[in-house]
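quick one, two chains, predict together pls
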Amino acid sequence: MNIFLATLKRDLRMAFRNPSSFLNPLMFFIISISLFPIAISPDAETLMNIAPGIIWVITMLSVLLSLNSLFHYDYDNGVLEQIVISHHSLSLVLLAKTTAHWILSGLPIILLSPLLGIALFLDSKSIYILMLTLCLATPCLSLIGSIGASLVVSIKNSGMLLSLLILPFYIPILIFATSAVSQSQFNLPINGQLYFLGSILIFSLISAPFISAVALKIGME
Amino acid sequence: MSKLAVKNLSCQRGYNLLFENLSFNLSSGEVLKISGPNGSGKTSLLKIIAGLNSSESGFIEFNNIKSDSEKYQLETLYIGHNAALSSELSCVENLEYLTNLSTEIESPNFLKALKDVGLENYENEFASKLSAGQKRRVALSLLYISQSKVWLLDEPFTSLDSNGARIIESLIEKHCAKGGLCILTTHQKCNIKNLKEISL
């Protein structure tokens, strides 16, 4: 079988047999967002104004939570060694693992975002733009995150280090994504923000698997 | 006639120089046992030969194929300390993925490989349910499937009972009789024909 599909199938199969690995970050996402109306104010206008920021910050944090397990488990049991010395392209295998990570962490967030958007009083147009920004940017979070996860693969309890390494690279995504949703609430043009998010996606899709492969070899030395 | 050439290999880990200017040749049918005390660099040497780690100096070639090439990776099979089994997957699912990574065989007979290592009817058993010795046997069943000429085995007899060790020894002998070659590290006594030994 094609190594990309074989890796994707294996990672998804393992995740569905141990669902807590991907359900925990998702529960964190839902619970954190549901707490904001209780903690700040149930007022519709207040929540509508801060909703893009809340949803996007919690999205990033929940993706960060799940990133630590991207390679650690395979490193501990020795599978990562076999992946590195395989005759297949290391970048392709890592892209498959990152795709599985996005399916398990990014895709459920995109699917849940309309419900949470309604809970935070976003209008239908803003929910559509929120989903669009999530579709464009959550793959970037997984791709960029895979570089950091590769670098710290051999370090135990590296969650904090990984966050420090990766968060600065997430900031442009956060700025463009929240700005797109906020501006759409006032019917302002958002093409620029979406173009930026699209170009970040293309750039990370092209470069991140290769950088991850180099970083993984360095991380495993 | 296949030949593995290791020339002037040096390895440093942190401030420790593990070995320097290490050279040896290994031809078809030969088995090399690397011995030495703990921390002397046996695993590091195997990992360098497998292409997993880099060396400070020197190079490795198999039939004039450089160790950083795709063809070299196809010709070598490395089984390390860890069994490389995922606990959420069954024995066959684990073997399926590991075979996919290390060979280009279309439809390997996993059931026969498991039977040959004494794990008949264990094909659907999850790796998490296996003992350390059984996990080792599943990992070593890859040897029955692999078509690689060079076997690199790090402590292959660890956790195995005497019967399991004998199965692996005879498998190594058969592999070498067919023109393959094998490098292994072990602290145990081996009863393998054509065994060469270097000490680190």
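Chain B has one domain: 3-199.
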